[in-house]
Amino acid sequence: MLAVLSALGTIAVVVAAGWFVGRTGVLGENAQRVLAATAFTVATPALLIETIGRADLGLLLSRSALVTFATTTVVALVAAAVLGWIRRRSAGDVVVGVLASSYVNAGNIGIPLTAYLLGSVVSVVPPTLYQQLVLGPIAMVVLDARRRARDGVVAGSVPAGALGTLRSVLGRTLRNPVIIGTLTGIAIAALPFSLPDVVFQPLALLGAAAPPLALITFGMSLAAPRVGGEQAPRGDVALVAVLRAVVHPALAIGLGTLLGLRGDALLAVAVVSALPTAQNVLVYAIQYRQGTALARDAGLVTTILAIPSLLVIAAVLG
User: Fold this and answer.
1) Contact 102, 79 (CB under 8 A)
2) What is the pTM of this model?
3) Where do the coiled-coil regions begin and end (predicted)?
4) Is the distance from CB of 84 to CB of 94 less than 8 angstroms?
5) How many domains does the chain have?
6) CATH number for the domain including 272?
7) Over the stretch 36-83, which tens digit does the pLDDT of each residue have?
8) Contact of 45 with 177, CB cutoff 8 Å
């Protein structure tokens, strides 16, 4: 419990600093974009290469990874069923709701939190890969098809367009700096020999900047004006909030316990499962003009609820 409070306190101070500089504008109007780009394209890939490159490659075939993959899939299916069959939302809104329920903020929040709390960011690798290589591409194909239909693209061209979209999404995914860093780290870890420390030292130095940069950027985003004036349906926001803050962590703890995870291993999967909705979801919603209000409100509400959720997890598993 004390470790969680210490980690959350440290994170809160850095986020508050980001909010302050964002609110006052002392770093200029483009500061958030520049800091985010630096964290995303330089610091975070370096951190992932250095961390994963030194890690046991069996991580991706571990019980912890299985818990992450299985519970994320269950949460996504539950969200899709409730939003699509019970609440009768459109396909585009269902996709955004599914992403808001299952797409965790493994970067901006997950990396610094696991770095400060667990001393390693390895636990964010399975959800990052699952989101970027599975959830993201599927969602992009559906959202693009919805946009094409809304914009009046002729029916006969949709299959070819969908195939082209899939190739485009996969291409963008494999050019994603976080994915590049992750896959590079995996390749290094798979080598039959160990690289000398001199190779990892500059990566470690660059990677050390990733958590504070991500937190400052997140704090600055909280100071920015809200996008759009519409309100998301309260029932949809409540569904996402419950799935993110309660159901997903409970599933992770339950399945992890059944699979024999104990101690830090169980704590790691529980912490990752309790992370708030990723900011990427709002970016996707804005891009495809689907579920923008839900993505925006879900990001804010789940970020607030993540604090008590993590404290409960620490009390239960500590």
Assistant:
1) yes
2) 0.74
3) none
4) yes
5) 1
6) 1.20.1530.20
7) 888 878 888 898 888 778 877 776 778 988 999 999 999 999 999 999
8) yes
